[in-house]
Write a structure and sequence with these properties.
It contains 3 helices and no strands. It has helices at residues 3-28, 32-57, 61-94. The protein is an all-alpha fold. The N and C termini lie far apart (85 Å).
Length: 126
């Protein structure tokens, strides 16, 4: 086997290994939102590894373009599907998407929480 073939085999092996590790992660995690973290890498990282392997192995540019197109769509849609799934899980668990004031979810970079009023209530005024 040539060095070229070894590189392609290693890339494909890495992709398969990553999928197996992520499958174990999905089985081990208890929470649906935790499982989402293990569903995303196969759709993006493995697609990129397989694309690089195809580009290295195939002399036809048509195969390159198709693989690049599929990988691009997978990477873009992965974020959309992950967000939609997380939103659906939250709606199923809480009954709504919006955060309630009693959840005390901190806003990054600010010293207040989601649902907290922007202005302090006026004191002494009626």
């Amino acid at each position: 086997m040539s060095v070229h073939g070894v590189v392609v085999a290693v890339l494909l092996g890495l992709a398969v290994g990553l999928v197996l590790i992520c499958a174990v992660g999905v089985m081990v995690m208890r929470d649906p939102l935790q499982r989402l973290h293990y569903v995303s890498p196969p759709a993006t990282l493995c697609a990129v590894l397989i694309t690089v392997a195809v580009v290295l192995d195939q002399p036809q540019k048509q195969a390159w373009l198709k693989t690049l197109l599929v990988t691009g769509v997978l990477c873009l849609m992965n974020a959309v599907v992950t967000h939609a799934t997380a939103r659906a899980v939250r709606v199923r668990e809480r009954g709504r998407w919006q955060a309630a004031a009693d959840e005390r979810i901190p806003i990054v970079g600010q010293r207040r929480y989601v649902g907290q009023d922007d202005e302090e209530p006026s004191r002494g005024r009626e």
